[in-house]
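Re: coenzyme A structure - here you go.
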Amino acid sequence: MPIIRHAMPGDLPALIRLESACFPPAEAATKEALSARLAAYPNHFWLLFPDSSCGEEATLVSFVDGFCTNCADLEDWMYEDATGHDESGRWQMIFGVNTHPAYRRRGFAGALLRTAIEEARTDGRAGLVLTCKQALIPWYASFGFACEGLSASVHGAVSWYQMRLTF
Ligand SMILES: CC(C)(COP(=O)(O)OP(=O)(O)OC[C@H]1O[C@@H](n2cnc3c(N)ncnc32)[C@H](O)[C@@H]1OP(=O)(O)O)[C@@H](O)C(=O)NCCC(=O)NCCS
């Protein structure tokens, strides 16, 4: 059974490796950004390990992360500035959704998103906000996110659509 848990400081090297396996350099979160995020909001990272059968913790293969804020829209500065995290913020932003290429299409990212959604609901947030490329709009819609059109983001010089799940 996969294990899903929040992050700990020692997870940083695995998070950096996984981020660079999932995104081209122009779109990947930098080592510095991931390090600052991990220090500021480890409980807003959801990590998935596929197997723990040998008594050792298996390899990190999927993660989701993002901070909480009262800003209603996801803006590019948020990716780099972890100080924007507000533990009592109304919106759970989703900055990263990553599964290692060798472990895709097994439902891992979906399981993490569902966990993040349920925690945000339990925590009394207004909902979750993310941006994605056009191809993934139907997938996020299957979790209840509604597409709000093109976002102002110029992250990685590609077009991003903002999607929101409102409780
Ligand atoms: C998108 C991503 C996170 C999905 O991870 P995953 O663990 O394979 O996701 P799940 O197994 O839970 O769900 C898979 C579903 O996602 C959707 N999906 C994944 N990649 C897709 C793509 N390139 N185009 C369209 N739909 C896609 C499909 O609906 C797929 O279902 P299917 O296998 O029945 O077709 C993974 O492909 C990834 O890390 N990609 C690179 C980073 C990225 O683009 N992240 C999203 C940023 S918004």
